[in-house]
Amino acid sequence: MTYCSYCGRLSRRCACHEAGSDLQRFMERGGQAYAPSRREAPYKRGVPPQIKQTERGKLKRRYKAWYAALAESNGERCANCGETADLALDHVIPIAKGGLSRLDNLQLLCSTCNRIKGKLAIDCRPAKHRE
């Protein structure tokens, strides 16, 4: 079975390719074209609330330091659209899909891009900063 690398659903049940989907809106905002991407294994499902709470706590404690580090290395602008206002840290792989609160899983996104992205697993960082 193959899975969509953006939403984590089975490829045949994925709606990311449809016009007007969250992924399409997100890609258009960043001036990118949609390119299907597949995974062989699904994302982690059913992350326990205790783990979510722990990961959010880590993010809160280190927010300022991680924000400063990302702003210094990638520039203080949205990794998707380049906006410079209303920036926030965003998990590349969301906590709900098993992502961890670590510097190598974070990117800066503006509030609009962050809201559209939601729980999608999209890495907008420059290639040199990816794992």
3D architecture notes:
The chain is an alpha+beta fold. The protein has a single domain (3-129), classed as DNA Binding (I), subunit A (Orthogonal Bundle), CATH 1.10.30. 31% of the residues lie in helices and 11% in strands. It is built from three helices and four strands; from the N terminus they run E-H-E-H-E-E-H. It has helices spanning 22-29, 49-74, 111-117; strands at residues 3-4, 38-39, 87-91, 106-110. A two-stranded antiparallel ribbon has the order 1-2. Strands 3-4 form a two-stranded antiparallel ribbon. It starts with a strand and ends in a 14-residue tail after the last helix. The relative contact order is 0.18.
- The name of the CATH architecture is Orthogonal Bundle
Largest sheet: 2 strands, antiparallel
Number of domains: 1
Given helix and strand content, the structural type is alpha+beta
Unreliable stretches (pLDDT < 50, length at least 5) are none
β-strand number: 4
As for the CATH topology, it is DNA Binding (I), subunit A
- Assess the beta-strand content as a share of residues: 5-15%
Radius of gyration: 15 Å
Distance between the termini: 25 Å
Give, in order, the helices and strands: EHEHEEH
